Structures are given as C-alpha cells and as structure tokens.
Amino acid sequence: MWIPYNYFTMHTLHPIIHKHISLKPYHTFGINVLAAGLAQFESLGQLQALLATAEAQQFKKLLVLGGGSNVLFTQPFDGLVLKNNIDGITVVAEDDEQVWVKAGAGVNWHALVMHAVNHGWGGIENLALIPGCVGAGPMQNIGAYGVELQSVFHQLEAYHLHDKTCVSFSLADCSFGYRDSVFKRALKGQFVILSVTLRLQKQPKFNVGYGAIRTQLEEMGVQELTLQAVSNAVIAIRQSKLPDPAVLGNAGSFFKNPTVDASVFASIQQQFSAVVGYPQANGMVKLAAGWLIEQCGLKGFRLGQAGVHGKQALVLVNHGNTTGTEVLALSKMVIAAVQSKFGVVLEAEVNVY
Ligand code: FAD
Ligand code: NAP
Q: Would you say 308 and 330 are in contact if contact means Cβ atoms under 8 Å apart?
C-alpha cells in the first residue's frame, strides 16, 4: 500500500530563517564560518515556503545541506543554507526476493543501514557508519568496502529549484560513476533530492572480498556470515582508523583515488615497486591516494591548525581552529607533492564552497 511521505503534505508553518549564523555546528569540518541565512525543512511544503521567502528576501544563492560531512567552507556563505530534515523510511514494494525501501533525504544514512540490517535486508551493510544523510548519497554515489550506492539504487525524487517541479530519476538518469553522479556535473545545484528508494535483498549476497573485512571477521571469530557480523566488522574497521568528526573535524577522504592508464601505472611501478593498483573494468588502474600522500612524507603533516591525518593520509583534519583557506592551502600542498613525486594529479572529493 502506498503511504504518502511527509514531504507531500503542505505545512502551513513557515520555518524560521536564522540570519548571520555560524555554520560550525552544521558541518563536520567544524570550521567557524558565517552564512547569510539558514533554515531547516521537513517537507516539500516547507521547502517551497522557504524558497518563496528566499526569493522575496533576495538571497543571492542557495545551498542544500544534509549532515555537512562532505563540504569545506573557505569563505562566508553569502546565501541561504537549507538543511534537509525530511524523515521517514517505508517499504514501497516487495516480492519473495527483494524489498524496495524508500527513505526521506534527511534520514541519517547509518540509521538506514541499521534499519536494513535489523530487518534482514542485504545490500548496504558494507556502507555502515558513513556519516551524513540519505539525500547526499546519490550526489557522489557513496561507496566503501567494495560496494557503491548504485548497486542497490532504484530511484530518487527531487525538486527542481528553477522549474518548481518534482522529478523522478532512475538509475540510468543518475549517471553514477566512481564518487560521481549527474548531480555533481550537468545538474549541479539544480535539484533538491527529497527521497531515495533502494532495492534490497531478502537473501543477502555478502561482499567480503575487500581485504580488511575478511581479516576483521576472522579476528572477531565470526563462523557464519550475517548482516550484523558484516556491518559490525565494517564499523570496527572504520572506528579503528578514521577520525571521529565529533573529536577531530574532517570530511572523510579529501581526495578521490585517482585512476590512471595501465601504462602510467606500469611506469610508476617501475620506480616504486610497492605501489598497489586496482585494475578497473575500463582498463584503467585505480591508485590508493592515501598511499601516494604517505610516500610523500605527509602523513601527520600540519599546516597551522590544518593537518593530514596520522592514521589515514587521505583525510585532512581540523586540529582545532583551522580555516577553510588553510585546509585548502594544505590540500594544494598535498596535490603538488603527489604530482611532483608520481606525476599524478589528485582531485578533491569534498565539495568546496
Ligand atoms: P553534505 O556534506 O551535507 O552535502 C554534500 C553535498 O551534497 C553538498 O554539495 C550538498 O549541497 C549536496 N546535498 C546534500 N544533500 C542534498 C540533497 N538532499 N539534495 C541535493 N543536494 C544535496 N563518503 C563515501 O562515499 N564513503 C565513505 O566511506 C565515507 N566515509 C566518510 C567518513 C568520514 C569520517 C566522513 C567525515 C565522511 C565520509 N564520507 C564518505 C563523505 C560523506 O560522509 C558522504 O559523502 C555523505 O554522503 C555526505 O552526506 P551529507 O548529508 O553529510 O552531505
Ligand atoms: P583501505 O582499505 O586502506 O584501502 C586504500 C584504498 O585502496 C581504498 O581507498 C580503496 O579504494 C582501495 N582498495 C583497497 N582494497 C581494495 C579492493 N579489494 N578492491 C578495490 N580497491 C581497494 O581504505 P580506507 O581508507 O580504510 O577506506 C576503506 C573504505 O572506506 C574504502 O572503500 C574507502 O573508499 C571508504 N572511505 C571513504 C571515505 C570518503 O570520505 N569517501 C572515507 C573513509 C573511508 P576505494 O576507496 O575505491 O574503495
């Protein structure tokens, strides 16, 4: 049975727009930067009301935020930040083998993973503990431990800011790639994602081929694979090596892992025999950016209050009171060092504003 989501209901209450507000609590880098305005919405009706107000008050630009775990602010945000809190997880269809689960864009991603694990639905257990909200998942086709969102994605609904219409996107429409989608490219800044529907498996097919998971399961003494065991293994690995943003500000991997031609990989390997490459379906080879940065001697390096994390060099961190420009300057130093040593140009994964 179709159950309407709260975003289809028209809320008469207009959410409050807070003016000249610090974004520090709204993003995981914990940088103190001001926004001209910030408001939170829980439904499409509230979003529409806010957009009308933003137009009347002539806000120069808009930015939708979920958990703020993939953004870096390098200057005050001269516009209205819209924090998406659309809630709700519903089964919209099922058959003997699969279940289609629709989640509001404001649902915490890890809460959705735990919901699936607890209901025995497989497909996203390897994506446990990724910070942020469901609505941002399609933005960069979130991925970890050998699984990407696209492998379970069914469709999403989004609101077009200019046309003021709701549009459905199928898997093909999203043009998912490695940490990439149409929403980061051709449609950048045009849509607010309202909900995402995933197709999950009632008889899970486990994906534990990613080295660290198998080792972790062995260490945990797991005899039989279950969704709980796999998600617990992923959680344990992540907690052991990734900085908790509540303790040390960061936005996860600052850079994407670069992919290079097989010939480029071969020439790097001639010089650096320990380099690890992961062959891709398109014949390219993916390199571990963290390893490249570490080889440049930058693991644990600091520039003022910004730093390269001591356990995972792919993560840039805020040691207390850094600024977005300082983090950006550090990222440029890292890019230059890796380019000079390996001839490979790293690209930022984090969305810089
Ligand atoms: P935000 O940071 O709020 O937004 C990110 C971008 O998406 C922004 O451009 C924003 O405008 C846009 N956006 C957000 N919501 C919407 C919406 N509803 N509609 C339209 N646009 C929207 N990522 C991975 O892929 N794999 C990982 O394993 C991983 N591990 C991480 C570990 C740590 C410790 C941290 C801090 C980050 C990690 N990340 C990882 C990055 C990040 O958590 C993900 O990219 C996540 O999906 C971001 O969600 P968010 O809600 O915080 O997005
Ligand atoms: P890791 O296990 O130390 O591995 C280093 C890199 O090698 C990873 O980035 C991974 O690429 C690649 N890799 C390792 N084993 C692989 C395999 N069997 N097949 C293909 N590629 C392999 O990485 P980590 O830093 O601890 O992160 C673990 C996972 O969490 C990774 O998937 C990573 O992407 C994800 N993660 C993402 C973020 C983020 O912000 N985007 C932050 C933390 C962790 P891939 O990254 O392509 O998987």
A: yes
